[in-house]
Structures
1.
Amino acid sequence: MPDDGEVYSEALPVVAEWRRALRALDSPPHTLAWLKATERLLRLEIQLIDDRLLTLSPDGTPWDDVRRDNELQLREHRLRELDRQRLWIEPLHWVGRVVTLGRFGGAEELGRQMQREYEARRAEVLSSSWVRRDDRSRN
């Protein structure tokens, strides 16, 4: 069985980047991070299909010229749709950041950030209550 280096040869770096971009789509849909990851993935797919003449998985059989053109048109159409989505998502992202004083839409999801802050505050309160109990028991 041939390895990836033999199969993809010069296209291997682009294929590896495409695989990383595919894994990067873990962001919630219709967020700015998801939009950027999807755009990057589509641009890499266009490069693989058009420049490298590769067939994307899960298809195992090579594409003919008609199928290749259809796949390219589909991805180019999707890129145009993403540009239209960006017109709405990007301003909404920054409005959310301003309204929430930078807590929304950062590198960390708001829910996780709030959970972390809650746990820190809880630990602080619990530790101060233990200090008060120690003071009472000494008196």
2.
Amino acid sequence: MAVYHCFLYDEPQVPIRLLRLSPEIAASSSATLTGERSGSLLQGSLEVFDFDSAPPFVGLSYVWGSAENKQPFLLNGDEVQITENLAIALAHLRDEHQEGTLWVDALCIDQYNDQEKSDQRADSVRIWLGPSSGQVDALMDFLEKIGRIMVCIGKPASISSSLWDVNIFKKLMAENPQISEAYLSSEEVEKTNEALRELTIREWWSRVWMVQVFVVAKDVVFQCGKKLSKLDVFETAVIEFMQILHATDSSVLQTRGWMHLVGEYSYVPGRGVKEIPINRTFGLRHAYVDTQDPTRHTMGYLLKTLYRTAVNDREPKATDPRDKIYALLGLAGDSESLRIIPDYKKTVRDIYTEVVGKVIAKDGLSLLLTCRYNPSSGLPSWVPDFRQGLVMSPIDRVTLDKGFCAGSAGIVEIGAQPLDSNPNILLRIGRVSDTGTSLLRLDDDSFDFGTTTRFISKIEGFLLQSASMDICPYGATDDDNEGHDPKWLQEACYRVPVADVQSNANWHTMTRAAASSKAGFDTLKEICQLDEEMTGQDQRFMLVMRGFNKWGNYFPALYGNRGRKPFITTNGYVGVGPGEMEVGDDVFIISWATVPYVLRAGQGSSRSILIGDAYAYGVIDGELMGKHKLIDLELE
């Protein structure tokens, strides 16, 4: 179209196109719109402004949807085709009598110009969640009511709240009965729950560009059908509504709606409100505030943004896999200092490698914790595959009271960087530990007491094997202790299965394993033994419930190691590593890295392939520093 004149980005004032959406009363009736509203043809015009002097406008955030069944839009007198999703959204957004000013990517950006696609922004955003229904309309009215109540009484939802602080919310509702009455007055509790589920699984919440637009916008309004809700009211209502469900009626926990909201971790202690999918999006917006204050974040904030967004969004969606990176650049306060400029002319491999290389060079090796061995990805082994929804490493415990420092002895230093001669090779100075042997895997699909028993037994067997070595890496052997187990062995037996972490008393965060972990370990072993002996169900149930206050804090960390393998190295070090680990792989201590890594010799070269991170008992606090010579390490 002639309207898409090329923008000159070296001009002092950056231009922007805005859509003047014609009111319904002025539209033609020559076409019929598919959706809740039908009748007149959508129409409008594009105008170009300098961004700094543009009139107030609203950016539309919506899911493009299928390219099939496109609808007509009369733009500057010419008919263009837009997706059905966009047509339905614009039909709901347009006013009956007044013209509206919008920024809509599909119309305001020349989709054939990659540079324009890289420059998208709006201060005020209307989030289109999709068409409504009678039940969702009722839910939106209810959320608006409860949200305003909570905001008025000064009790906005806290992003760090926990589902398990039930007494706090019971007390809150006792002091403010209008809150629970707003919910309990409904005679269709199940339908309300189902409507909330339906609203929170809509595709908007899982699209990576949607998250970026939502996080950076100054003013946000949610719209579902014709119902509107401001961000603070909507967020407060959704979070507090879920708290009310838990605090007022435990039977609600059994509904499909509730179980989906809690998400895949619903049955695992240690997961609270902040882990619910919709709340993770809210949490990222709160975290974005840090990027606006240069005194509150370091050069590595981009790493944290990329990592946490990709990990928390279990299956982040983007039509173009390059958007998995570019959509997040605006969330990081240090993206400009890293000189990462969106460039859609580059390949996925080039973009992912460039970004990860720059982040590692500036902030260290933490991003390697997201790497999983996948030779078919087409990426260097040290580059996480953001196309796949990254898996949280059980070794990455940012909330630990005492962090791991296997390769740094508590000192943080940066300096790893891709070679100038080959950006696909990461150069790092490291220390060799030794070769590992791995056998058993704690599989995802068979995580039960029987599998737990085999997992723990394999670790104990490796530890006993280490203790019987002529030179045990952990010190005293059986012979030195006159046949009794050495003291370190008792501690290692409960630390290794959980990679030396446990849930704290409130299940909110993880801490370094303590003496209470041993009690949890012993109780869990007893339960597993009863399960093996086919003891009566009642007796096993009583033991499970009676000992829950002990093993309940131990189990989440053990569960976090599902899919990983116990190993023993040739020198007797015992730990757990990635499920892809094989006999002959090296357990490697890399300088300044917090944890060991498992490496495999590359085929036909002196370089190594990264398999994944590992936990090894007795090396996690820098014990091996100074005991091995430094070598140059190249990862491919």
3.
Amino acid sequence: MPPAGMSASFFHAFTSHLPDAVSVHGLQLPGRGRATGTPVHTDPRHLGQLLADRIRHDDSGHPYAVFGHSVGALIAYETVTCLVRQGHRPPTLLALSAMAAPHHPDFAAKAPNVLLGGRKGLEELFGRLPDHAGHGPDALISAWIPMLADLLLALQFRPHQGPPLDTQFALYGGEEDPVISPEALAGWNDISSQPATPRFFPGDHTYLLDNVEAISSRLTTDIVTSLRGWACPADDPGSPSGECSLGNLRGRPRS
């Protein structure tokens, strides 16, 4: 799940650094990329439900992970929560980057300055606006709309309800993030039955694109760890016992 205002192409840089066995599917959110002009969503539960339905529809029975950065981390969390609520199998890994847990005040406390700060406020929180935003008022508005919608969506998240999520977490952050503190990132462990040690990389809130290779390596390690004990689908080569082979994970062709 991409950060605020960004399209699925945000993750394109990661595809060449992940094993061939890992097939990357960037979910295109309304109002951006190829979906520019479609109505944006500001209701987290409604958007989470739409994305959960998409995952259920495309589920091949193979293991999968869900990854989200910044506001995309909240959307990823809500999507997995919807899947669990409906009784669908959760991902083997939920990887969350540069965002506070829903019950932590960090993000909400800083959001008013963003709303009042115009373009400067948005860029301090989410990074530089896309290059096309400088091509005139219409282009700037088309870039702002999904960013502001995602900010409003993030502010409407409520503390987690129900039992902790029973899926492996991975937590990533920037060492100099002025928005999300290490404590806020670690707060995700309060709603997981499988706590994770937060991993930090050089950079601020937009650290992700400056550390593509290192994060891809860390994500691959966390995916492999999450697959231990996973039973392969009947048509998967797997091991004789039916457990997915880590060797097969690294060698299976990209789909």
4.
Amino acid sequence: MPPSSEQPRPAISVSVHLTRLVILVAVTLGLVVGVLEVTLEYFRLRATLLEHSEQVTKAFQNIAARAIADRDMGLAAQVTDGLFEFRSIVSVELSDETGNVLGWKERDQGDRYTHWLPFDIPSNQDTIVLRLSPPGSGGETKGYLKVVATSERATQIWANQLGMVLISVLVGTLVFACILLLISHRYLTRPMMELAQYFRSLDVSDPKNSPLPNPDHFRFREFRGIAEDGVRMMRDIARNSEVRDLTANELYRSQKRLQDFAEISSDWFWESDRDGGVTYTSPSFTKTLNKKTGEIYGRTIAETTTEDTKSPKWHKLAEIQRQRRQFRDFRYDMEVQPGVVKTVSINGRPFYDEDGTFIGYRGTGADVTNERLIAQARNEALQRAEQASRTKSEFLATMSHEFRTPLNAIIGFSSLLSMPEIVKASEDRLTDYSTAINESGQHMLALVNDILDISAIEAGKRVLNYEAVGIDSLISHCLSQVERQAGAKDIKLETALTSGAGPIVSDERSLRQILLNLLSNAVKFTPAGGTVRLSVEETPGEFVFRVADNGVGIPQERLPTIAEPFSHSAMHPHVAKEGTGLGLSIVRSLSVLLDGSFEIDSEAGLGTTVTIRLPRNTAEAPDNAANKQATSA
């Protein structure tokens, strides 16, 4: 029941309250009985007075008849005066048959009965009319005697009796109350006060040394029973106190033992209610995950994760909890700090109360982030090993193909040159053969240089020579190197340069290698009749080199790995996969080496755009170009 908002009533004595109730009942009963008796007496007295008035009136009937017969006014006056001697008669009228009044008299208002009540009590009036037949009239009515009688006398007597009743009731009640108060104090209040004094002196914290009441001291069995119950209660309290102390000590030791284990262990304990809200976590939870308990209390396990709780594993956990079954090693990610996610593993089992009602879950939890990271690193290492194996296989296949073609050409044309009939051939044919041998050798040298370059960059052995490089001369040189390749496919080369662009301080060889690789790739993967565009933008802090083509493009899923070594971008079935696949890898590595960035944007069938951002002044340019150092891998 909720507590009442009303102010508590003041305490009162049992004797006083009992006396008050008895007085109230006694006064009420006395008044009711007294008033009832007086009222009955009133009605009896009123009937008696009216009957007496009628008898008196009849006593004057003959005299009044003679006064009517003789027309004797004096005798009529005697009749009226005689009737007025009776106080209950208030009016007398003596008249003949014609209505002539021989005698009439009416009592004054002040001459009537009075009483002590402050208000008037209505009284009844009865009219008595007697026919007057004088002797010798043959019973003929000669006149009338009219008398009006009232019950005021009965009212006065009733009021006086009522006053006596009230006084007697009040006096009797007062005497009765005093006697009752003394009796209740002697036989009720005093024993109860003695019991109360005993109970007030009891010390629940030390029941053994508390004074106990002696039941034989009390005369009445009710108080003796209360005293016996008090003694029995204190003895039970003493026994329970001993058990409580033993239980408390054992509970303290158990809690201390559990607390020590919980603080030492990296795992933690947790508990949830029947709705799944967490209600308890051990201190290791805060120590291990660096997360306050208030951040998880009241929340379900699913509300603490950063994972998608609609996934199958969360549905399975919800089904297990719905069926009140035990679960083990359920792993999920939890955000312990902004941007910091850890993986935890929890075990749980349902628990019930004494009635078998499900209360919630209890279990343990552990931080398995390191275990997850180790497994993840192991998987990544395995993937890298598998990727390295695939890369090695691809590299061997590519190198075999790339070297076999020029070697076949070199061997074939050199064999022709060793034949006498070929030696005697025309000079033009010999020139063609030697040119083919030279181009095949140059191609093989380029392959070897690419491999050496990427190896030197990855090993950190690439030596950079910083100098001021003119943008116009750099672009002209690079375009001239790919004009023949572009012309063979009727590809249009376009440039867009910032007017008056200043020099860039960087490694010229690396710049040429970056642009030549990008232009060569763009021409290689652009179909005949396409366009390759080279643009350079100058900003206050950097140069932006951008090579765009409208070639075959690169599928979106290949973009994240397109710059990996030995990766080919062409997915078009009609475009040959020429080269080692090291071009974009060299470009990206050199861009990073020059403190720049590498970006690629492409879509299959729509072309590719590669953006290189390089700082305007990577290093201090030497005053004399003669100070350049030779770069080698």
